[in-house]
Design a protein that fits this description.
The protein is of the alpha/beta class. It is built from twelve helices and 15 strands. Helix content is 32%, strand content 16%. Strand 12 and strand 13 form a beta hairpin. Helix 4 packs parallel to helix 5 and helix 8 crosses helix 9. The N terminus and C terminus are likely disordered.
Length: 394
């Protein structure tokens, strides 16, 4: 996924039609929170689907973009699926479809267990009853659930289990092909899970492409794949012995398919995390030339493990550079629980302590992300920049 373009025709604005499937995102009780990270990410960026509503009866903000601390996104947050259907029925983008209906119901929760609650199951079955295809990134596969699979068959809808890996016989072992990838490779790692690595990857990819440096993002989680990453794997769903090879294959495919000058690889968890192993796979598979570290200075404990203190940025940098035989070239800030002035202070302090540039990818100018990369890899500026981004859609 390099650059973000909406598949819209060149018709005049008054008749332009967005060709992406429309999607309602279910995120009951967790939108704009850590376990709602899939819904949060889809609202911020989605090449694959046009998000038309978010379901969360506990959210007291009417617009999804505002609920995430940004600008009005024109995506209402509603309490029920029926309310979402009513919103879509009035959507002016559906001028050629009457009555208008959403195409897809996306399960936008990302609980630690990767499993549904009873209420979640009821919501999925209700959406199937309404004739919506279901997209899920859970560890439990909907197509393997007898009740859900039967309901989908009766309703004639499709179940998409994003995390389901390929058959074991088709999985790839590491073979060293990563050494043939002749471009700058950057991994975005973090000091915790659910800390904004995917968002930073997306913004970094957009910023580099906008600056004329062809860049492709390789996704490693279910949300990135739902957003439309053309290259990637859901790492935590792949048997351990195949993880490095599968991700290596995705990076090689991005290189062979696009010939970019930069490949940005989404990290998972944290290398220091007591429960998650995916960062080790990212480092081994992609062999990054540089790492950007995502850190939340105000976060005191790990998001899913409140008895475990957050690592410092400095300790994580030391671990990454030792284990990965690479270098950290910059740090990005997750500003949760921080004011604008606190972000400024944290950026100055961490830049001084780490000796690398620091920015907030959401609150600061995207040019700071570009400078972070070009300062570390000045060879990217040696060749004339291309006019506009390379586009790779799913």
């Amino acid at each position: 996924m390099s650059g973000f373009t909406s598949p819209v025709s060149d018709l005049p604005a008054t008749t332009r039609v967005d060709a992406r499937p429309t999607a309602v995102v279910y995120c009951e009780g967790n939108f704009a929170r850590i376990d709602g990270k899939t819904a949060n990410g889809l609202v911020r960026s989605s090449e694959r689907y046009r998000i038309v509503a978010v379901i969360d009866s506990t959210c007291d903000t009417a617009d999804a973009g505002v609920a995430l601390g940004g600008e009005n996104a024109g995506i209402p947050v509603v309490a029920t699926l029926n309310a979402a259907l009513a919103v879509v029925a009035q959507d002016p983008a559906h001028i050629f479809a009457a009555p208008a209906r959403p195409d897809v119901f996306i399960f936008g929760l990302a609980p630690l267990s990767g499993l549904m609650s009873d209420d979640d199951r009821a919501a999925v079955l209700e959406a199937i009853d309404e004739g919506l295809d279901i997209v899920s990134g859970l560890h439990e596969f909907l197509a393997d659930d007898v009740e859900i699979a039967l309901a989908a068959d009766v309703a004639g809808v499709t179940l998409h289990d994003v995390r389901r890996p390929r058959p074991t016989k088709d999985l790839r072992m590491f073979d060293g092909a990563i050494e043939t990838v002749d471009c700058v490779r950057i991994a975005v790692l973090g000091t915790d899970g659910a800390i904004g690595k995917r968002t930073t990857c997306t913004l970094l990819t957009e910023a580099l492409n906008a600056a004329g440096i062809p860049t492709v993002m390789v996704g490693t989680g279910q949300t990135g794949l739902m957003q439309g990453a053309a290259y990637g794997v859901a790492l935590d769903a792949i048997p351990a012995q195949f993880g490095v090879g599968e991700l290596e294959g995705a990076v090689v495919a991005a290189w062979e398919g696009e010939r970019p000058r930069v490949i940005v690889v989404e990290g998972q968890g944290a290398l220091s995390h007591p429960a998650y192993l995916s960062s080790t796979v990212v480092l081994r598979a992609s062999r990054p030339h540089g790492v950007i570290l995502q850190h939340a200075p105000a976060r005191q404990v790990l998001s899913d493990y409140p008895e475990v203190a957050m690592p410092t940025a400095g300790s994580e940098v030391a671990l990454i550079e030792m284990f990965g035989r690479t270098r950290v070239v910059g740090m990005t800030i997750n500003h949760e629980g921080m004011s604008d002035s606190e972000v400024d202070t944290a950026a100055v302090v961490h830049a001084a302590n780490l000796g690398v540039p620091v920015t907030d990818p959401l609150w600061r100018d995207p040019s700071e992300l570009v400078a972070m990369v070009t300062d570390a890899f000045p060879e990217l500026m040696d060749q004339p920049l291309v006019a506009g981004p390379v586009v790779a859609t799913a």
